[in-house]
Specification:
By secondary structure, the protein is an all-alpha fold. The protein is built from 17 helices and no strands.
Length: 274
Amino acid sequence: MGNTTIIQKIEQLPRLPKALNELLQIINDDNAELGLLAEKVSHDALISAKLLRLANSARFGRRREIGSIEEAVIRLGIQPLRILVTASAVTSAIPPVNGVDLVKFWGRSFEVAFFCQELGKRAMLRHDTAFTCGLLHNIGELLLALMEPIKWRQVQAAVAEGADQAEISLYLLGVVPAEVAAQLASEWYFSDELVAGLRYQEDPPSAKSPSKLALVLALAKYLPLHWDDCTDAQRTSWLAQQTEHFRLRLQMDGLASRLEKMLGAGEETARQLV
């Protein structure tokens, strides 16, 4: 199956409900008013419930419990609110997929998102954009499992035997998961910067225009998988080596301890939403 056919299938997926579609557009509008955002969130009971669960969770929670969407808007501020609303909306938008453990899937997504947020902030990127890019980084895999379940199982079997996922996906499906993720992000009105970050995550230097976000995402994916490659005493120097390898300049003070706390936090967050 060719790239064009897969992209057509993405375009033919059931559209987001109107309220959710409008909500994502508001989230991605830098000029949106907080009052309008609160109003749109309040219209969707499922998103509201997820948002409040997240806002009061250990990772995002404040000292005093947040009891309403209006209070969340006032107390959290726009960037944390964007992160929470996006997380709630995205996890609500994708239907269950046979054979996919959604808690583990979204757990990995959130872990990368947390890493991406911290790294993005230190790379002078908007950390809400970096978080969303991390959250969506592997959504192409979920869509391919939904649209082409037999071929996607073949991809997974080949990867388990040591094949490169991008190469085998291109061979069997005519498209790589990163391109599918980028296409969906475009359909959902996310920024060109975020779409490029997703599209070039496997090979940032191949981007037509330099994409710092793609570099940050690539590093955010790499670090949790290789965290135990060094001892705690070596961690800071190891992180410096990795950032240099990924051609990034980051503020390194306290980075190791910040990232250490994020390991495993993704699955805890996913349980709040799935």
